[in-house]
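User: Show me sequence and structure for the first protein, then do the same for the second.

Assistant: Starting with the first protein.
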Amino acid sequence: MSGGGFDGAEFRRVLGHFPTGVTVVTAASAEGPEGMAIGSFTSVSLDPPLVMFCPGLESTSWSRMRPAGSFCVNVLGDHQAEVSRTFAAKSGDRFGAVSTRVEATGAPVIEGCLAWIDCTVHAVHDGGDHDIVVGRVEALGVGDSDGGVGGAGRGPLIFFKGGYGRYQPL
C-alpha cells in the first residue's frame, strides 16, 4: 500500500490511461548487445540536448547496460509491436530477429525504427524502484518513417491501457 491509500495495481491501472510511445533502449554491454523495452522516455533539455528514461532497479538488462556509459533510444513504429514484445520479455535472443547498426556510441540502432537517439550517460538519479537515467544526445536521426505521421508513412507504436495501438490523426 502506498502513502496515498491505493496499491500498485491501482496506480498502474490509472496511469495506464496515459498513452506512451514505445522505445527500445540498447547498449553495447560487456556481454554483447543488450536492450529493453521502455515506455518512460522523454526529452529533458534542448541546451544541452538531454533525454531521460526510467529502467527498473530489478532489471537484469539495465544492470548489464549501466556500466557501458552510453545507450541508444530506438523509437518504434506501429509495425514493430513484435520487436517491443521481444525486448520486453525476461529472456530470449532479443537481437536474433532484428537488424542493427552502430552510430556514435557503439550502441545498437534497430533498423526500421522511426527515430534513434544515441547518448552518453549524463546522470543517474534515484527514482524509487527505478533509476532516472539522463542521457546527453551525441547523435540522432530519423529512421524508416517514410513520410511521417499523417502521410503515407508509418506512425509511432503506442502503448495504452495494457495494449499496443496506432496513432490516428484527427
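Switching to the second protein now.
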Amino acid sequence: MGKVFEEINADLSAWIVAQPIFFVATAPIAAQGSINCSPKGNRDEVRIVNGHTVAYLDQTGSGVETIAHLRENGRIVLMFCAFTGPPRIVRLHGRGRSILRDAPEFEDIAQHFSGTDAIGVRSVIVVDVERVSDSCGYGVPLMQFESHRPTMDQWSNRKGPDGIREYRAMKNRVSIDGLDGID
C-alpha cells in the first residue's frame, strides 16, 4: 500500500498541515551517538513552502539534538500519522537546517508563519525534502485530539526574553553527545 511521491502535492500538503502532531528524527554520524526522535505539536507551525521544501517553528526545549544533528550532517525525517479518519503515515526524508532567530535570513522564512514573535521560538527548521512516501498506518491507534497544551507558551512567557536566553545558554549549547548546538 505504500507509495513514493515525486513531491508534496496539494492533497498531501493539506493533509500534512492538518495533523495536530508530528515527529522529527535525526541522528549523529557517530555509530555510538544518540538517535533523537521528538514529538512536535502542530499549532499551525508547519508550512509546506513548495513541493520539495517544508519548514516548522522550533520551540525552545531542554535539548538541542535536532539543531546539533543538522549542523553536523543535515539528515532528518519528519513523520505525520493519522490518529483520526483513514489510516495513513507520511514520511518526509531530506536535508535540514536550522535558521536561528537572530540569523539574517530568519525574517525571510518567518514570513511564512504567524507567531514567530513568540518568546519560545528558537528557530525555523527548513527541510529540503528528497523523498516523500506514505504507508498504511494500520498499526496507528485511533485517538481523539483534545487540545494543544498551553504549557510551552506559559513557561516561555514566565521566563521572559532574558530568561529564555539564559536557559538556551545553559541547556542548548551542546547535544547530549557533545555536538555543537546553539552558540
